[in-house]
Design goal:
six-stranded parallel β-sheet, three-stranded mixed β-sheet, globular
Length: 298
């Protein structure tokens, strides 16, 4: 079997567009669709065919890759694509859909004869554009030769978590990883907010932790976005981070674990979005520390 595939990419937001572009650059035939067509149209310059509907996008596809907002949105789009899906095609489901939704998506795959791979990714805009994502994947060994070229085009490495995509082992790992990412992001914002309130220069805080075990590149990256006005374009938007935080809380509740930090993170993202920061980088959760929109230190 040739390693050059026809890949349908459904959902071309921040992540999906970058993945589609890297698939095209790798020599695969890419058919892209997005609910707002304007977000998909720039991909035509990279050689992708921009489709008018999910059904048009998936016609003849060896692999269908979904990168949409959440599980219900993914299921709705796949239902639209349903009549044109080819039995035996691989479905790479990369949306952070949550544990409950994965079983519904896997059931849809069985009904339509699709080979289902639960394959969320770790990384934001920059690694996505560079093809340096980490793919967390679960799905049958038979058929991996079809999806491996896709994973290689969009990611730097693939971590396999199991052979049953419907078990959601990859999604579970993604939620665990995101719980850490979102907690650090909100902690970084609160550090800046408290420094502002107490009239402490942020650079003094960074001098204190410099080079020690409390220092970390991610902390400096996220605080830098706030301090230097780099919240747009978003690497990972506030609204999407809020959605993921809610999925993490729901997963904890389902399995009897109270996740107070994740719950607080969800509330902070919701407040920041209500203040008008929903499309900015999730570091904009910083503003949720203020009753009225605060401004970063110069």
């Amino acid at each position: 079997m040739t390693d050059k595939l026809t890949v349908s990419v459904l959902g071309t937001g921040i992540m999906g567009a970058a993945m589609a572009r890297n698939l095209a650059r790798a020599g695969h035939t890419v058919r892209a669709w997005n609910r707002t067509r304007a977000k998909a149209e720039p991909l035509a310059a990279d050689g992708a065919l921009v489709a008018d509907s999910p059904a048009e996008a998936v016609q003849g596809a060896d692999v269908v890759l979904t990168m949409l907002y959440d599980g219900p949105a993914t299921l709705d789009v796949m239902r639209e694509a349903g009549p044109a899906l080819r039995s035996g095609a691989a479905w790479v489901q990369s949306t952070t859909a949550g544990i409950e939704a994965i079983s519904d998506l896997a059931a849809f795959a069985r009904e339509h004869g699709l080979v289902f791979y639960d394959a969320p990714v770790l990384g934001t805009r920059q690694p996505a554009e560079a093809g340096q994502l980490t793919v967390l994947a679960a799905g049958p060994v038979a058929g991996r030769e079809t999806v491996t070229p896709v994973f290689d085009a969009v990611g730097a490495r693939t971590v396999w978590t199991g052979e049953d995509g419907g078990a959601g082992t990859a999604t579970r790992l993604k939620l665990v990883a995101n719980s850490w990412v979102l907690a650090v992001t909100n902690a970084a914002g609160e550090v800046l907010a408290l420094a502002k309130a107490l009239d402490v220069e942020p650079r003094h805080f960074f001098e204190v932790i410099d080079g020690g075990p409390l220092d970390m590149g991610y902390l400096r990256a996220k605080t830098g976005l706030v301090l230097n006005g780099g919240l747009t374009p978003a690497a990972f938007a506030v609204t999407t981070a809020g959605k993921d935080a809610r999925l993490i809380v729901e997963a904890g509740e389902r399995y009897g674990v109270r996740l107070d930090v994740a719950a607080a993170s969800a509330e902070r993202f919701e407040r920041a979005a209500a203040q008008g920061h929903g499309n900015e980088d999730m570091a904009a959760a910083y503003f949720a520390s203020f009753d009225e929109e605060g401004t970063a230190e110069e």
